[in-house]
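Methods — Computational structure assignment.
A single polypeptide chain was analysed. Its primary sequence is given first, followed by the predicted tertiary structure written as structure tokens.
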Amino acid sequence: MNWLGQIFDPATIGAFLTQFRNEMAEPTFWIAVGKIIWINVLLSGDNALVIALACRGLKPRHRLWGMVLGAGAAVLLRIIFTGIVASLMALPYLKLVGGLALIVIAAKLVVPDNEEGDVESASHLWQAVQIVVVADIVMSLDNVIAVAAAANGSAPLLVLGLAISVPLIVAGAALIMALLAKLPILVWAGAALLGWIAGEVIATDPGVEPKLHSISEGPFGASLDKMLGSLHIPPQFAHGGAGAEYVCAALGVVVVLVVGSIWRRRSMLAAALQASEQHAKASAE
């Protein structure tokens, strides 16, 4: 229980609030908050449906409380789990694994989901809260990995981004899902964003970063800077530049979009074949 005491220690809270105040003054902080909210909106549609289904059997006066308490508990637990994942990413090669997992998550985002969930309807308030919390924990691994990567170790980003996005999803689940259905380009853009973040995560892994910088500082990086110079672009690779990270991020986008397109095409062909077989079977009967 020592870790719990450290979380609620006044010195820890004071340091967190100071960091929060300092980071809020930076425009990059709000860009990162937007990334986290977007990621959660794209990846949490199923979670929002679980909350709605779990609370559908409650009395009308308890239904709102079930959604609010369930979402609140889910936010708190998700912040804790995401913080744990973010701290583990400081270990060598764990960012590499997380980045690869994020590429799979991003590619899967554009694949049609033909599975229908079967969620138990709760008969009383605390049962509904329990169902929501357990379901959110089980279903949120992709969210946790993606948000931990986007926050890049910043506790204020984790807290603010998740605290805003999860209630937003609960309140506007139907509207968000309708918007994504009518504008599928938003889903593709979200997948590309996750691919970019995945590339950045892999490039900044403690085990990978030194190798990338050795390439950037070598003849290959020098030749790339020379090419950029002919286009009147400042050097990006030599002297600790971020060119290697940008290349990895761009490669992440390309991989996600290519793999996602292939995966989507195969899924749609399999679904069409299954529907054709079911139609032929029904006609034969």
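Note: The mean pLDDT is 75.
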